[in-house]
Specification:
Helix content: 25-40%
Bound molecules: adenosine-5'-triphosphate, magnesium ion
Low-confidence stretches: none
Number of strands: 30
Strand content: 25-35%
Largest sheet: 9 strands, mixed
Number of helices: 15
Radius of gyration: 29 Å
Length: 569
Amino acid sequence: MRLTNLPLNTLKEVPAEAETLSHQLMLRAGLIRRLASGLYSWLPIGMRVLQRIENIIREEMNRAGALEVMMPIVQPAELWRKSGRWEKFGPELLRLEDRHQRKFCLGPTHEEVITDIARHELKSYRQLPVNYYQIQTKFRDEIRPRFGVMRAREFTMKDAYSFHIDEESLLRDGYEVMRSTYDKIFTRFQLKFRIVQADPGAIGGNRSEEFQVLAESGEDKIAYCDADDFAANIEVIELEPPNKTRGLPTQTCEIIKTPKIQSIEALSKFFKVGPEKCLKTILVQGSKSPAVALLLRGDHELNATKAERIDAVASPLRMLNATEIHEATRCEAGFLGPKELDISIYMDQDASLMSDFVCGANRTDYHYRGTNWGRDIEPPEIIDLRNATTGDPSPKGGGPLSIARGIEVAQIFQLGKDYSEALEATVLDDQGKKRTIEMGCYGIGVTRIVAATIEQNHDNRGIIWPAAIAPFDVLIIPINLDKSCRVREAADTLYCNLIDAGLDVLMDDRSYRPGVKFADADLLGIPHRVVVTESAWDKGKVEYKNRREDDPQLVPFDQLVELLRDKGD
Ligand code: ATP
Ligand code: MG
């Protein structure tokens, strides 16, 4: 492709709306444009990346024996009522009505529709196992769409669903096959990733794992221990009671005026103690009461799944806002504590080991210091309430856990019979008896992969595409092509030669200064750059540079194709 045929608007300035590097670079390089919150258009260069990603996914899915299908985005409410998710899914499900006032939703995922297909198409155990997949648009009305296509409302997913006669086949012919297929796919994308144990969440089922691309900017935290190969999303790690005893009180409990000191950070600065000496009191919505208090050590994070397991806590978990907190306690947020707090209270295991700690006094602008359980406050019920953190013991016993940040690019689930039972998907077994089908499901976030790849592959000048998913293999930059016929001819010859060699070639034949073209080249991140100048060409040479290298090298024109093949990553 020639750049004179492609209206490319690269941006020099960092767009103010973009927080993450990948979002900034995708806008600056003209891969995507925002239409509305969480809605993005893919422009030609972005589209080429998407297609390369889709092609690799398709190739590996087909190789694994999966069958491509395409299901509607608009799905009837009836089907969702049968699975129970019309009520359960919550506001992420965008609901609509047609002209006959029939209710529909935009598919956030396709378990219902595929199970409906399975119940009609699959009649006998002889047709199993079978795996259907599609690459399709999904819609989820995310509460906070952000980071561009990373957390969009409309996005592309590759979703696959496998059907089996029994659990053994689900594990062997479905789950394990998809797990190793995904492993191959993400290895082909040249991404650094980890497979971690995960929470099945709204999709349901038993065992589940996520594929997490390692990146500092990732929204997820994963805990791992290289000594015993344990790896899990911190959300799912159950923590044993700590093998420690509580320290004895050494301070007296005093009330201290703490005007506007409302965060753990501010408290720990004010009292000159670490956050582990400050008690965090979080108010959440109760299932039968307006508020329930959850207590944690100041340096620990609340685990939503663990909190939702408490009967008195409403599910899904919802933190109270400032007004609700005031209504429930007559006190401003940031000054809450367990002493004389007249609502249900639950405390994390580690919070129960605190001594001489700081906590809110349930009076605006006041905190206690030197507080101790038993002596000053009756300890509430103790449970595991927090996320795992660095140094917690690995559940497999191999040593302390480390924490890394990750971007979830895929998740696989052993669903079992959740959907097939609800939608009555059965087959006849070898005895002629009806059996409910076992099911697995496997999603890849196709559009999110583009952003995740950029998070892992960039420098301060722009994107550095891994060769497998780059929009083009080679970029040709002719210098002064308006002034020199020889450069123009040379560039055209090179362009045709490289295309004949089977490469995807972009030629920057715009009449711009070299500096502009080089800056765009770095921003676009195409793996190989070939510069054509009159002086080099006269010696039968061109200038070659890999996007990851700093210095160009002069290469004889007739050896270029070979060099590109060798460097093919
Ligand atoms: P998350 O926890 O990030 O909200 P999820 O667990 O709800 O994702 P799944 O139902 O597992 O998502 O969907 C499969 C894949 O689709 C995810 O692994 C992710 O890569 C992608 N995905 C999910 N939500 C979005 C979104 N809002 N924007 C872009 N990609 C998404
Ligand atoms: Mg997921």
